[in-house]
Design a protein that fits this description.
84% of the residues lie in helices and 0% in strands. By secondary structure, it is an all-alpha fold. The protein has one domain. Helix 1 runs antiparallel to helix 2. The N and C termini lie far apart (46 Å). The mean pLDDT is 92.
């Protein structure tokens, strides 16, 4: 349950180190680029791999912590989606550009969809299980994806400006 927060802290540390040790001038544009790069690598990439492992290899434990029935074959489908996001997030670290923007956007939309499902589950079923409500919901499924979308938009604007200069 703590791994999303640990990944966020690791991302912030990597962002700070890369930003302040970067040879380029320290600008807001550099900050958004570096932030998107490490958030997608660590939170989308590594986080996706860890979520895959949980849903694939401990589906009943994850289901119980979300407050869902155990034994659902949909757990493996969620695992596969997380694996896909994990691999794309890791690959985007090296490919960058619009590939990273697409990875961030897709992951953000997936997480916002998860957040909507969790909120609906809270409101309609009263499900306040640890992985369905509270800090995990607000940080991992609402705030983080909104930040990803904002950074993706800012990076897209940065890339578009650069393409007009060429």
């Amino acid at each position: 349950m703590m791994f999303p927060f640990s990944l966020l802290v690791l991302s912030i540390v990597c962002i700070a180190i890369n930003y302040f040790r970067n040879s380029r001038p320290r600008t807001f544009r550099l900050f958004t680029e570096v932030s998107l790069r490490f958030l997608v690598l660590i939170n989308t990439g590594l986080g996706g791999i860890l979520a895959f492992m949980g849903h694939a290899f401990n589906p009943d434990g994850i289901a119980r912590n979300i407050g869902w029935e155990t034994g659902s074959p949909f757990q493996f489908e969620v695992a596969a989606a997380n694996l896909a996001f994990g691999i794309v997030g890791i690959v985007s670290f090296w490919i960058g550009g619009t590939f990273r923007i697409a990875a961030a956007t897709a992951n953000a939309l997936f997480l916002l969809g998860c957040g909507y499902g969790h909120l609906r589950d809270i409101l309609l079923q009263g499900n306040t299980s640890p992985l369905n409500a509270g800090a995990v919901l607000w940080i991992s499924d609402i705030i983080f994806p909104l930040v990803l979308l904002l950074l993706a938009l800012l990076d897209f604007k940065r890339l578009n400006r650069a393409s007009f200069i060429r």
